[in-house]
Design goal:
alpha/beta, Rossmann fold, 3 domains, globular
């Protein structure tokens, strides 16, 4: 979306504010205040929202039986499963691919593809998710065949890239593709034409994992992606044993409800202070690198932060954090460690120059990454995440805490437990830095159609709170595009757009 006119000509397909996953959560309206002045309250409520979303899945036991059976039948026949997603759901797809290959070394029965290819794990590529043809093309290039199964994961239920891959699978395979989302089916059918097309297609099996609103408005990297990863992962792990899967889920929810998350307070304060003091961090992890990099990557578009530094393509703007995998000596080894397989770049330079293998391997997450980060201005702090005595161990700036997990050993529930902890941690760190207001992502970077709409809606909400409720959606979008061209890392797109609109109104004769 290069111009306001281009977006507005098709705005109907991106206006998604009526969907529950895009709505402000009533429990977290004061989240930014708690981040700065009451971390214990912020952590408590974030855990409540996680548990609310997870408990909703318990009611879907009967409905999900068919999904589990489809996954099991594919694996039992020796055929392949392709996990498809964009952004957060793309990263959860790569994570599940990783976990499968760690559990079954040498097996390629589970593969993953995300919009932009593997490099999008660490660096968002603008615009890819808006094109269904790209999803279909990517699927074919990976060798999808007539006996294979596609599982499409889309938090909102409307992502064009995922829909393109799912519809292509419906044309080609004898196995009905599975389409999982987190918004109610009737609402998607009524509001979103491309969703209606998929949900009404008799060749496609669809399931709604209704999570309700996100703790941070629209931030589907949180509850929605957690629930999608959980359900798909349980199906891969338990096969036809749905009772066993849901028994494990009940035990995990019980564990989470009793888990003490207040030890995260010290880590949140220290990391926020490190950035406010002009420093940087680097996360160090071997076993949990895929989960750590998912959380750290997703901070950039959510909070308008610099994406991961690439020493081969310097920009003069440095990422606040990075990842090092101590077990990896080279860039190639670090990618193999992250993915548990060889990387699969798209090699579509005619569409985007950053889809190539050369570009992907220019990111080095091995031991050399620590040396590179030490060369940045300001102090560098290392945040270590590893295992000790069957616990997750977090160490940072002299603080060490251990978290027990119910399914220890690098498995699905271990990684999901860490994911929930990191989501809470990073969200509240960003709140202390003022990177959201209330529970609105006011610093979101509008890099695609969905994010342009989000930023426009948040602008509209804040203007309304100031009694300025007569700006049209089109006016807000045009102002946003004008502001984006000069947006600096120190500015919020929402607040800059508001200032422009109000300033232009004052200056009118």
């Amino acid at each position: 979306m290069n111009t306001a006119n281009e977006f507005l000509a098709q705005k109907k397909i991106f206006r998604l504010g009526d969907l529950p996953t895009e709505a402000p959560h009533p429990k977290t309206a004061q989240l930014s205040d708690w981040a700065k002045g009451d971390l214990a309250r912020g952590l408590k409520v974030l855990r409540e929202v996680d548990l609310d979303a997870l408990n909703r899945i318990l009611d879907l036991r009967a409905e999900l039986g068919a999904f589990f059976a489809s996954v099991a039948a594919t694996l039992e026949s020796g055929d392949r499963i392709f996990l498809v997603g964009c952004g957060a759901t793309g990263r959860l797809s790569l994570s599940l691919d990783h976990l499968w290959r760690r559990k079954f070394p040498g097996s390629a029965q589970v593969s993953s593809l995300m919009a932009g290819g593997d490099v999008a794990l660490v660096h968002s590529l603008e615009g890819f998710e808006d094109f269904p043809d790209y999803g279909a093309r990517h699927l074919l290039e990976l060798g999808f065949g007539p006996n294979d199964l596609v599982i499409g994961a889309t938090e909102g239920g409307e992502t064009p890239y995922v829909i393109g891959a799912v519809e292509k699978a419906a044309e080609m395979s004898r196995r009905a593709p599975q389409f999982l989302c987190c918004n109610p089916r009737p609402l998607l059918m009524a509001k979103v034409e491309r969703s209606r097309r998929v949900l009404a297609d008799p060749r496609i099996s669809s399931f709604c994992l209704d999570t309700g609103p996100m703790a941070l408005t629209g931030s589907t990297r949180m509850q929605a992606s957690s629930v999608l990863m959980l359900v798909i992962g349980l199906a891969l792990d338990f096969g036809r044993d749905v009772d066993g899967a849901f028994a494990a889920l009940v035990r995990w929810i019980d564990y989470l409800s009793r888990q003490d998350v207040t030890p995260l307070e010290a880590f949140i304060v220290h990391e926020a202070n490190a950035y406010q003091g002009g420093g940087h961090t680097i996360y160090a992890s071997d076993e949990y690198a895929i989960t750590v990099i998912t959380d750290t990557t997703e901070r950039a578009p959510t909070f308008n932060l610099a994406p991961f530094d690439n020493p081969h393509y310097p920009t003069g703007r440095h990422s606040l954090t990075y990842l090092t995998i101590p077990a990896a000596a080279t860039a190639k080894e670090s990618w193999r460690h992250l993915l548990a397989r060889e990387p699969k770049p798209l090699e579509w330079p005619e569409i985007h120059p950053k889809t190539t293998k050369d570009y992907l391997l220019s990111f080095d997450f091995g031991r050399k990454a620590l040396e590179i980060r030490q060369g940045l201005p300001g102090p560098l702090q290392v945040f270590e995440i590893d295992t000790a005595e069957k616990h997750l161990r977090l160490r940072f700036m002299g603080v060490e805490e251990r978290f027990a997990v119910p399914d220890f050993g690098g498995s699905l529930l271990d990684h999901l437990t860490l994911k929930l902890l990191l989501n809470m941690h990073s969200t509240l760190v960003m709140g202390r830095l003022g990177r959201f207001e209330g529970n609105l992502m006011t610093w979101v970077y509008p890099s695609n159609g969905k994010l342009i709409d989000r930023a426009a809606r948040y602008t509209e909400i804040l203007l309304r709170r100031q009694g300025q409720d007569d700006f049209t959606y089109d006016e807000i979008v045009r102002a946003q595009f004008a502001c984006k061209s000069t947006l600096s890392p120190a500015e919020s797109i929402v607040h800059k757009t508001m200032a422009k609109l109000l300033g232009d109104r004052v200056r009118r004769p």
